[in-house]
C-alpha cells in the first residue's frame, strides 16, 4: 500500500510538472533614428547575428527616421534605397514611420514601401491619396507559440497636425492624435496577443505622457528625441537607443505560458563588435562614389554647431544680396566639421534636404514677431534659440519662459530689411509677415559648395550672436 501511494505521489508530481506553464524568453532587438548611417550596419549585423545564434525567439524592429543624414544614402538616384536593402538583408521584422521618412515626399515614400520586405505600421496615419497606401495600424507575429502585437505611432506635434517637415509632403494625409490612436488599437489587440509592443516616434516626453494614462503595453520602444532611455513608467518599460546606430537595444521579455512575467532592457554599444564581412563589402560598394568623395575645399579651423549655422546664414545672405541671413537650427544637420579637407558628401550631410533660398522684406517689428512666435511654440522647436541671424539679438523672456520682446542692437526700427532664409522657414513658420516674398532657384548646399571651392580655406566664426535674457519683476 505504501508503495502504491508513493507511486501515485510521483505520478501526480510528474503530471503537474509536465502540465506547468512553459517558461520562454522573447528578445526584441531595436534601433531608432539611424539617419542613414549605413557605415554602422556591419557592426549592427554582427550584433544581431550573435543574438540569433543563441535563441529562436527574436524580433528585430525599428522606431523610425531611417534616412536623411548620409549623402551616400540621400543623394543616390533612389534616395533611401541603400538602407532599405541593408534592412531587408538583415531581415528586419517591423518598423514604424518617423518624420524623416517623408523628406522626399509622400509620393516617393509610397513607391519605396514596395521595396521594404518588413512590415511598416502606424496607427495614426490616414491616407486619402492614391500615391500613398494606407498603412496597417499594427502587425502580429508568432515566435515559438508566443503571439506578439506591434503597434506603430508617429509624432504630429511639430507640424502642427503632422510630423515635422514641409507641409507639401503631407497633403492628403491626416495624422490624428498618436496617443489616442495607440490606445485605441492597444485595447483591440491586447486580448489577442501575449506581448504588446508600441513602436513610437513621438519622443520620450510624449511617450511618458501616454504611459501615464495606460498600462496596456508591455514595452514601448521609442525614437525621435535621440536619447538613451531605460525607465519604468506606470509599470511599463520605456526605451530608446540614442541615434546614428551607436547602440542596439535589447529588450528581454520573460513569459510563463502566455503571461508576461518581466521585461528588462539593456543598451549594447555596437563598437564592441567586429564588423560582419559581407555587410562591410556591401557598404563599401555604396561608398564608392568618386564625385561625393572628392574634396571641394577646406576649413582652416574646426566649425562647431554655431559656426556652421553662422556660415549657412552668411552664405545665403551673400548669394541673395540680402541685408540679413537667417537659418534654423533644425536645418543644421551636423554638430561640427573638423579643420581640413571637406568633401561634397560632407556638405550634403550638413544640408541633406535640397533646401532652397527664400527672400522677403521685413521690418525689425516683423522680425521680432517671427522670433517671439517661434520661441513660444509648444513644440520641441520652441523655447530655444531656433533662429540664427547674421545680426545679433536678445530674446527677453519672463519667469515662465515666455518670450515677450526681442532687442536688436544693430537694426533701426521702422527700416525695411531684405532677408534671406531657408525655404523651410518661408513655407512652414507660423504667422510670418513680410513683403515681396519669393523662393529662388538656388539650393543652399550648392551655395556652400561654391563658397568652399572659391574661398578655401574658410575660417568659421563660432561665436553665438543670439542670447536669451530672463527678466524678473
What does this structure look like?
The protein has helices spanning 2-19, 41-52, 71-74, 81-90, 106-112, 178-189, 204-211, 277-286, 290-293, 305-320, 344-350, 364-375, 423-428, 444-455; strands at residues 23-31, 58-62, 94-96, 119-121, 126-127, 138-143, 146-154, 173-174, 195-201, 219-221, 228-233, 236-241, 247-256, 259-269, 295-299, 303-304, 324-328, 336-337, 340-343, 356-362, 387-389, 393-397, 403-407, 417-422, 435-443, 466-470. The protein has 473 residues and is an alpha/beta fold. The chain folds into two domains: 20-286, Metallo-dependent phosphatases (Purple Acid Phosphatase, chain A, domain 2, 4-Layer Sandwich); 295-470, 5'-Nucleotidase, C-terminal domain (5'-nucleotidase,  domain 2, Alpha-Beta Complex), CATH 3.90.780.10. The model is unreliable at 4-19 (pLDDT under 50).
Q: What topology emerges from the helices and strands here?
A:
Layout: H1 2-19, E1 23-31, H2 41-52, E2 58-62, H3 71-74, H4 81-90, E3 94-96, H5 106-112, E4 119-121, E5 126-127, E6 138-143, E7 146-154, E8 173-174, H6 178-189, E9 195-201, H7 204-211, E10 219-221, E11 228-233, E12 236-241, E13 247-256, E14 259-269, H8 277-286, H9 290-293, E15 295-299, E16 303-304, H10 305-320, E17 324-328, E18 336-337, E19 340-343, H11 344-350, E20 356-362, H12 364-375, E21 387-389, E22 393-397, E23 403-407, E24 417-422, H13 423-428, E25 435-443, H14 444-455, E26 466-470
Amino acid at each position: 500500500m505504501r508503495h502504491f501511494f508513493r507511486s501515485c505521489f510521483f505520478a501526480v508530481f510528474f503530471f503537474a510538472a509536465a502540465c506547468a506553464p512553459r517558461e520562454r524568453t522573447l528578445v526584441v532587438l531595436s534601433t531608432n533614428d539611424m539617419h542613414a548611417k549605413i557605415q554602422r550596419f556591419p557592426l549592427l549585423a554582427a550584433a544581431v547575428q550573435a543574438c540569433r545564434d543563441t535563441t529562436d525567439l527574436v524580433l528585430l524592429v525599428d522606431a523610425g527616421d531611417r534616412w536623411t543624414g548620409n549623402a551616400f544614402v540621400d543623394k543616390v538616384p533612389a534616395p533611401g534605397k541603400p538602407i532599405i536593402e541593408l534592412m531587408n538583408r538583415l531581415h528586419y521584422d517591423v518598423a514604424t514611420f518617423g518624420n524623416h521618412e517623408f523628406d522626399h515626399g509622400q509620393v516617393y515614400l509610397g513607391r519605396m514601401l514596395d521595396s521594404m520586405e518588413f512590415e511598416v505600421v502606424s496607427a495614426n496615419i490616414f491616407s486619402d491619396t492614391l500615391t500613398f497606401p494606407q498603412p496597417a495600424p499594427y502587425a502580429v507575429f508568432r515566435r515559438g507559440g508566443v503571439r506578439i502585437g506591434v503597434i506603430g505611432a508617429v509624432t504630429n506635434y511639430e507640424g502642427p497636425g503632422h510630423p515635422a517637415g514641409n507641409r507639401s509632403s503631407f497633403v492628403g494625409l491626416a495624422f490624428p492624435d498618436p496617443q489616442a490612436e495607440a490606445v485605441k488599437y492597444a485595447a483591440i489587440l491586447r486580448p489577442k496577443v501575449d506581448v504588446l509592443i508600441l513602436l513610437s516616434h513621438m519622443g520620450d516626453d510624449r511617450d511618458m505622457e501616454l504611459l501615464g494614462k495606460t498600462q496596456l503595453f508591455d514595452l514601448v520602444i521609442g525614437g525621435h528625441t535621440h536619447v538613451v532611455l531605460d525607465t519604468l513608467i506606470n509599470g511599463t518599460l520605456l526605451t530608446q537607443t540614442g541615434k546614428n546606430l551607436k547602440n542596439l537595444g535589447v529588450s528581454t521579455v520573460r513569459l510563463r505560458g502566455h503571461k508576461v512575467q518581466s521585461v528588462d532592457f539593456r543598451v549594447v554599444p555596437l563598437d564592441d563588435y567586429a564588423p560582419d564581412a559581407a555587410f562591410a563589402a556591401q557598404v563599401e560598394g555604396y561608398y564608392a562614389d568618386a564625385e561625393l568623395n572628392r574634396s571641394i575645399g577646406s576649413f582652416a579651423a574646426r566649425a562647431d554647431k554655431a559656426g556652421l549655422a553662422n556660415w549657412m546664414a552668411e552664405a545665403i545672405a551673400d548669394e541673395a544680396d540680402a541685408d540679413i541671413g537667417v537659418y534654423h537650427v533644425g536645418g543644421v544637420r551636423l554638430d561640427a566639421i573638423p579643420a581640413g579637407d571637406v568633401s561634397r558628401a560632407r556638405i550634403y550631410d550638413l544640408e541633406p534636404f535640397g533646401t532652397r533660398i527664400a527672400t522677403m522684406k521685413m521690418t525689425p517689428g516683423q522680425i521680432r514677431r517671427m522670433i517671439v512666435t517661434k520661441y513660444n511654440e509648444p513644440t520641441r522647436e520652441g523655447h530655444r534659440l531656433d533662429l540664427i541671424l547674421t545680426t545679433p539679438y536678445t530674446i527677453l523672456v519672463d519667469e515662465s519662459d515666455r518670450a515677450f520682446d526681442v532687442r536688436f542692437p544693430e537694426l533701426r526700427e521702422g527700416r525695411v530689411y531684405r532677408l534671406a532664409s531657408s525655404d523651410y522657414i518661408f513655407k512652414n513658420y507660423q504667422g510670418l509677415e513680410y513683403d515681396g516674398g519669393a523662393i529662388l532657384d538656388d539650393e543652399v548646399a550648392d551655395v556652400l559648395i561654391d563658397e568652399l571651392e572659391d574661398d578655401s580655406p574658410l575660417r568659421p566664426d563660432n561665436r553665438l550672436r543670439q542670447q536669451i535674457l530672463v527678466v524678473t519683476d
